């Protein structure tokens, strides 16, 4: 029988993650204690006139909005207008993330499929959104969804070290900042965080769990979360990690003050575009074809996107649907 108090034996992939994410006390950066106030002041100074010109209010910005506004404006506009419909691939991410959330506080050594079944049962109890979708599935569709989510969870358990309670693991942690007299909300949800700050010494690691190939957008997503975390706590996270399940490799980035300021500038640029693209006086969005054309709601009618997609499909990366 397995002894629950015995330290787990790590395979080389798990050991690498442990080594890559850990840091001794003296290796952790300390930030100045007025950083949060200064970031908020400079952000609101730049954002107030933009937000004042927006119609309708209030505005909301997520990491997805930022990514679309900086990649293809027309994709952003199409996304705003499209009605979201649950499918097995889109539900897979929600089920898998719920399973990881359960794993954080689960005692013992759970089997991936048990976590997935429990996650689906809990999501199905919701009378809105994904709950209604899960209730509508046939037995075969349920099995397909469970199988796909199981692949994600099993790979996570196999390649990521077991979550030690002393690491303060938190799954699906929401971060949010209200700016400009509550007329602008910045929000997100971090897949997994480990560690915590000690005074103004950074200690938290923010982790996004990814399927598909690495993309520069993934790093930008986490920088946005680092900014929100700093606006919330006053001390930034220590490390940003995109963890690619298929390769079992973390891609890390240390958080610096420069990184936070450049993320703040990127946010201001995006809000400027957003304000121009919505409301009665909205300008026409520009199109910038790219890998995002594959899952763009406007792809069927966008000439630039159709031309791009006509290229050899093998050249395009997989959609990251988790
Ligand atoms: S199909 Fe491509 S180019 Fe056209 S709007 Fe969508 S993402 Fe932009």
Low-confidence stretches: none
By CATH, the architecture of the largest domain is named: Alpha-Beta Complex
Bound compounds, each kind once, are: iron/sulfur cluster
Strand tally is: 6
Shape descriptor? globular
What is Rg? 21 Å
Structural class: alpha/beta
Whole-number tally of structural domains: 2
H/E series: HHEHHHHHHEEEHEEHH
Please indicate the percent range of residues in DSSP E strands (runs of 2 or more): 5-15%
Distance between the termini: 35 Å
Q: What CATH first level of the largest domain would be assigned?
A: Alpha Beta
Report the mean per-residue pLDDT as an integer.
92
Profile the largest sheet: 6 strands, mixed
CATH third-level topology of the largest domain = Lambda Exonuclease, Chain A
**Number of alpha- plus pi-helical segments:** 11
Q: What fraction, in percent, of the residue positions are helical?
A: 40-55%
């Amino acid at each position: 029988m397995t002894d629950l108090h015995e330290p787990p034996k790590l395979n080389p992939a798990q050991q690498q993650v442990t080594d890559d994410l850990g840091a001794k006390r003296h290796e952790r950066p300390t930030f100045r204690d007025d950083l949060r106030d200064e970031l908020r002041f400079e952000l609101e100074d730049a954002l107030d006139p933009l937000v004042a010109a927006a119609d309708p209010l209030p505005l909301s910005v997520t990491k997805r909005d930022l990514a679309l506004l900086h990649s293809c404006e027309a994709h952003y506009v199409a996304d705003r207008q499209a009605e979201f419909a649950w499918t097995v691939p889109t539900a897979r991410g929600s089920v898998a993330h719920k399973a990881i959330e359960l794993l954080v506080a689960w005692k013992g050594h759970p089997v991936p499929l048990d976590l997935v079944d429990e996650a689906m049962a809990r999501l199905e109890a919701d009378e809105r959104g994904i709950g209604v979708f899960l209730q509508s599935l046939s037995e075969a569709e349920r099995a397909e969804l469970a199988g796909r989510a199981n692949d994600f969870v099993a790979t996570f358990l196999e390649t990521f070290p077991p979550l030690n309670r002393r690491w303060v693991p938190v799954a699906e942690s929401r971060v949010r900042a209200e700016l400009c007299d509550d007329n602008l909300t910045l929000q997100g949800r971090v897949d997994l965080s480990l560690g915590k700050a000690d005074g103004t010494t950074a200690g938290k690691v923010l982790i996004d769990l990814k399927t598909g190939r690495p993309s520069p957008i993934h790093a930008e997503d986490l920088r946005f979360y680092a900014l929100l975390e700093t606006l919330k706590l006053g001390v930034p996270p220590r490390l940003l990690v995109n963890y690619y399940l298929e390769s079992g490799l973390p891609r890390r980035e240390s958080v610096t003050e420069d990184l936070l300021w450049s993320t703040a500038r990127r946010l201001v640029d995006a809000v400027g575009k957003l304000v121009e693209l919505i409301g009665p006086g909205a300008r026409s969005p520009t199109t910038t074809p790219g890998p995002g054309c594959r899952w763009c709601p406007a792809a069927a009618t966008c000439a630039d996107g159709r031309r791009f997609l006509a290229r050899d499909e093998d050249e395009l990366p997989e959609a990251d649907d988790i």
